[in-house]
Amino acid sequence: MSLRIYNTLSRDVEDFSPLIPGHARMYVCGMTVYDLCHLGHARAMVAFDVVQRWLKLSGLQVTYVRNVTDIDDKIIKRALENGETIRALTDRMVDALHQDADALGIERPTHEPRATDFVPQMLSLIGTLEKKGLAYQSQGGQNKGDVNYAVRKFAGYGKLSGKSLDELRAGERVEVLEGKDDPLDFVLWKSAKPGEPADAQWDSPYGRGRPGWHIECSAMACQLLGESFDIHGGGADLQFPHHENEIAQSEGAHGKPLASIWMHNGFVRVDNEKMSKSLGNFFTIREILARYDAETVRFFIIRAHYRSPLNYSDAHLDDARNSLKRLYTALDLVTPAAVMIDWAAPSLDAYTARFKSAMDEDFGTPEAVAVLYELASEVNKTRSAELAGLLKALGACLGLLQGEPARYLQAGAGLDDDSIQVLIAERADAKRAKDFAAADRIRSNLLDKGIVLKDSPAGTTWEVQT
Fold this sequence. Notes:
single chain, 3 domains, 4-stranded antiparallel β-sheet, 15 helices, 15 strands, 43% helix, globular
């Protein structure tokens, strides 16, 4: 294969060669389902959707696993606040996740395991670690009964993050608690605490309790993909401690590399801060889709390289929309011919060859999108149905340009009537409150998106700017 991928573990771009010839196995850490997904989650889902699409187009069978974390401190807290069961909350959030992912054109993974369905496998893995002297049970303190991983007994700890043990600090979900032999040790099994609901507890050789976060992914990945597989992915924030701890658990238990290649997508940033729920600067996918069409959001994510920071702003989304309109304008000029690309052909046309070269070099979507712009320019000049068909076919590799061009262009910003009516109502409320600056801002923002408001005694209507 000509595909090369940046490996966080080696800190270099490496040739990709599946452990099982012709079969790529990939595990990506999914969402903790206590709330709606935000744009940071969308970025990860889109990034690895593109990866699995290109692996398939490269002629590989792909087994893609993206898990769901459905037991966690935040989930328990939210369920108690809502007065609902953990399962009711997580089922509702998984449904919402699927709706958001489907809207963004993200293909479903081969397997989508829920952590609560793999507790026996987690306990088995913990037992193996205990037998190997890598796990111990707290004997005293408020956390008596917890089972912890003995970090300093695993020689390779820190190889993913590239830090020594003395440099490492407990991560976001790794609390320094009583009963640990070392502050860096992390919990594998949490003993049940007073007041925790019964549906957050399982029987175990260590007493009633629940799994720690890190052991969940180790157990699910190894159960569904084997003890060693090809690609392990996730957001850059998971590199430490989550992925570092997965390596310690899995490799400590099995004595072999967990994954050949570790991939991490970059953060979404707002005002140079990482977008996250903990910082409170996040925008849910649904909030963004109420103002921008899903393909524009997908294009906004894809045109940046998956490892680079992605800066969120309305201006950047507006620019993405206008750029995508350029591509659809070309497709609207002439009916695209049906084009089938034979990626295994000994020679490819210049556009397809450059597109392939870009994607084969660590999924270089910015360069691949540049090829789409070049094609669109040629279509504008030549009105060639064949080139238009090639533009559409290459766009399909990224999950783009499959809509009806006229419909996309007519929609302007892609806002549907319901979304526009909400903004019209907000403008009317502002006018009644004599907040004319806000009313004018709503009209101006809609005009920027190509939507003209028309006031009359009967009310306000809208139309697309010609």
